[in-house]
Design a protein that fits this description.
It comes from Nannocystis pusilla. This protein is of the alpha/beta class. It has three domains: about 1-70, Winged helix-like DNA-binding domain superfamily/Winged helix DNA-binding domain (Arc Repressor Mutant, subunit A); about 75-160 and about 265-295, D-Maltodextrin-Binding Protein, domain 2 (3-Layer(aba) Sandwich); about 165-265, D-Maltodextrin-Binding Protein, domain 2 (3-Layer(aba) Sandwich). It is built from nine helices and 13 strands. The chain has helices spanning about 1-15, 20-25, 30-45, 60-85, 110-120, 170-175, 220-230, 240-250, 280-295, and strands at about 50, 55-60, 95-100, 120-130, 140-145, 155-170, 190, 200-205, 210-215, 215-220, 235-240, 255, 260-270. The strands form three sheets. Strands 3, 4, 5, 6, 7, 10, 11, 12 and 13 form a nine-stranded mixed sheet that branches. A two-stranded antiparallel sheet has the order 1-2. Strands 8-9 form a two-stranded antiparallel sheet. The longest helix has 27 residues, at about 60-85. The protein is elongated. The relative contact order is 0.15.
């Protein structure tokens, strides 16, 4: 049983990467070690978990099932371990988060500094990615996001809010036609998220329906949008936490403050088995408290536009 538990994490990496070589690179071990661990699992269970030859590697149905259920099992074991340590007065462990680029902004350093002072024995890993990872196979404790389709079978906890606003540099605005109403954006260079139908994208309005705009630059990289706005390339839609210091320094200014903007919830998605972890709960609580404190001192944010139902453990 000890060997089985020890080798299950390797199976999860194999399930995600679909390759002995890629799994070995991620785990930092020789390919032969990964192959040996897989063979040990198959020997202990007396079941073929993967079909492999010199060119291909594919998990069998039994291998895929074991990987899925092992991920849940390991998450549950981790939560139990966290609880036992907490009962002994120790908040320690390792947490692995995934989040999109730009969601943390300049404030992420403050959050991490606060967590390090509060929980010095908790190690944190943050993986920045634009795709939605698999919590089970990739062994993430949580995904931090603003997008959580209701069909996702994971638990949710609100950590804060992201206020999106329209900004531009004073240099860009100088000498250009005034921006007094949303329709004036048609006469300006727009920097925005990915294009949709017919090359257009939508910007949220504080009143009424969303506004269709045609961006000159379209990207899902929020830090790139910020840098482009700072370079005076155009008007960008960005979260306030990413440009807070730029606004204070007047290197960016807010435009159409009464018209363009939206508030999105920042939430954590995690497995139900991890809801029992006092380490995860403590970190979530401290992040939420920090965001609540920050909201009372930041620059005036746009009014809330709508709300979404969230489930909190």
């Amino acid at each position: 049983m000890d060997a089985l538990l020890a080798n299950l994490p390797t199976l999860l990496v194999l399930a995600r990467t679909g390759s002995l070589t890629a799994a070995a690179a991620e785990l930092g071990v020789p390919r032969s070690t990964v192959s040996r661990r897989l063979a040990r699992l198959e020997h202990d269970l007396d079941v073929v978990l993967a079909e492999r030859n010199t060119r291909t590697f594919t998990l069998t149905g039994a291998g895929r099932r074991l990987a899925a259920e092992a991920g849940v099992l390991l998450a549950n074991l981790q939560s139990i371990s966290d609880s036992v340590r907490a009962d002994a007065g120790q908040i320690r462990g390792r947490l692995r988060f995934a989040m999109p680029a730009g969601l943390g902004g300049a404030s992420i350093g403050h959050v991490l500094g606060r967590l390090q002072r509060q929980y010095p024995a908790v190690e944190i890993e943050i993986v920045v990615t634009e795709r939605r990872p698999n919590l089970v196979e990739e062994r993430f404790d949580a995904i931090i996001t603003t997008e959580a389709p209701p069909e996702l079978p994971w638990m949710r906890r609100k950590l804060g809010e992201a206020h999106f606003i329209a900004v531009a540099s004073p240099a860009y605005l100088a000498g250009r036609s005034p921006l007094t109403k949303p329709q004036d954006l048609a006469e300006h260079v727009v920097l925005s998220g990915p294009r949709g139908v017919e090359g257009l994208t939508t910007w949220p309005q504080l009143r009424g329906t969303s506004l269709l705009v045609r961006p000159w630059l379209a990207t899902n990289d929020l830090p790139l949008l910020r840098l482009s706005a700072l370079e005076g390339l155009g008007v960008a839609l960005l979260p306030m936490h990413l440009v807070f210091q730029d606004l204070a320094a007047n290197t960016l200014v807010r435009v159409l403050p009464e018209d363009i903007g939206a508030t999105l919830e920042i939430i954590a998605l995690f497995l139900p088995e991890r809801a029992r972890s006092p380490v995860l709960r403590a970190v979530f609580t401290d992040i939420a408290r920090y965001n609540a404190e920050r909201s009372t001192t930041r620059l005036t944010a746009p009014p809330r536009r709508g709300s979404a139902r969230r489930e909190t453990p």
